[in-house]
């Protein structure tokens, strides 16, 4: 009787809807920081944080190296930049976890800042998180599969669904011409080096452990910790995919490291469940096979990947891309 009452209470209790940033507290914090910084510096004050040769060398204003990426220079850049950056940060934080993404972004930013120093002149480079857009666009370009190669056709040319993200990113990258292309390109190259498993940079973590603990404390105080749980569909997606090996970064739900440095499976303790009827998976559909073979994969490998991924095209594409 008590079990029945508990079940009835669970049915009647409304479930709390998950927010857009659920599972991505770092992404929410970075987006809020960028927007807040722009509101503070929007009235022509972004020149106080921009990078240029004279202020760095002659005036020794080295603080600019640490804050130039905080705010965009205009309202249009902020809107378009957030439209590109927010979904990418949320996506990759859900897949790799806050800790790994924070290390990746920090490495990329350090490298991109060094690269930009070679292009400094008397004219300010564009302010804002252009290096972060560049590094996350590298992840998007390399590790996000094209699910629909013929999503849209323009003048006889076929484009995938990824073209939408590339289009909006191009609006931001070209907003200030050469002075915004340089920070973006620096970030893109830095993203490649930060994920390279064959260089020391790929395995280097520039963030001390106490910074992570401080971030957890701030998250608990500000409520960002409530966003740390990843929605179930994202966790399941990560557990169906293998590690991508991004310089030590793993998809969430595959392999994690505990406090002693050992690896452990991120799985809930086994629970007894009533026996369920087992159904055989349906064979891959011709449409799914055609989509993946159009991406350049062999038919046998496509059929095998679809069978292993329960005919989920995205999961199968990830399996094919990661070998």
TrEMBL record:
GO molecular function terms noted in the UniProt entry: serine-type endopeptidase activity
Biased composition (Low complexity): 264-280
Main localization (coarse): membrane
GO cellular component, one term: membrane
Record flagged with keyword Cytoplasm: no
UniProt key word Transmembrane helix: yes
Record region (Disordered): 244-280
Gene3D superfamilies from the UniProt entry: DNA helicase RuvA subunit, C-terminal domain, Rhomboid-like
Domain UBA as annotated: residue spans: 283-323
Pfam families with a match to the protein in the record: Rhomboid (PF01694), UBA (PF00627)
SUPFAM superfamilies for the chain: Rhomboid-like, UBA-like
Signal sequence coordinates: none
Domain of life: Eukaryota
Protein name: UBA domain-containing protein
Taxonomic lineage: Eukaryota, Sar, Stramenopiles, Ochrophyta, Bacillariophyta
């Amino acid at each position: 009787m008590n079990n029945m009452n508990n079940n009835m209470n669970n049915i009647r209790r409304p479930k709390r809807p998950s927010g857009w940033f659920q599972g991505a507290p770092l992404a929410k914090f970075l987006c809020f920081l960028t927007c807040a910084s722009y509101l503070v510096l929007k009235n022509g004050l972004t020149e106080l944080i921009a990078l240029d040769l004279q202020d760095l060398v002659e005036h020794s204003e080295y603080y600019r190296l640490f804050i130039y990426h905080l705010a965009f220079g205009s309202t249009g850049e902020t809107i378009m930049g957030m439209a590109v950056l927010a979904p990418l940060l949320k996506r990759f934080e859900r897949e790799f976890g806050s800790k790994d993404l924070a290390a990746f972004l920090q490495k990329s930013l350090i490298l991109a800042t060094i690269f930009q120093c070679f292009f400094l002149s008397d004219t300010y480079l564009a302010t804002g998180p252009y290096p972060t857009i560049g590094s996350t666009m590298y992840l998007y370009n390399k590790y996000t599969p094209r699910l629909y190669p013929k999503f849209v056709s323009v003048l006889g040319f076929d484009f995938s669904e990824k073209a939408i993200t590339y289009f909006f990113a191009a609006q931001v990258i070209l907003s200030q011409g050469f002075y915004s292309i340089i920070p973006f390109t620096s970030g893109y190259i830095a993203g490649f080096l930060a994920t390279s498993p064959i260089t020391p940079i790929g395995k280097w973590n520039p963030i001390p452990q106490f910074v992570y603990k401080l971030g957890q404390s701030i998250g608990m105080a500000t409520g960002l910790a409530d966003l740390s749980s990843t929605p179930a569909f994202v966790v399941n997606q990560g557990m169906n995919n293998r590690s991508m090996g991004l310089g030590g970064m793993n998809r969430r739900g595959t392999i994690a490291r505990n406090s002693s440095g050992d690896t452990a499976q991120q799985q809930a303790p086994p629970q007894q469940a009533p026996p369920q009827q087992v159904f055989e998976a349906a064979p891959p559909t011709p449409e799914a096979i055609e989509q993946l073979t159009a991406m350049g994969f062999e038919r046998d490998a496509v059929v095998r990947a679809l069978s292993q991924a329960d005919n989920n095209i995205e999961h199968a594409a990830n399996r094919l891309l990661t070998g």
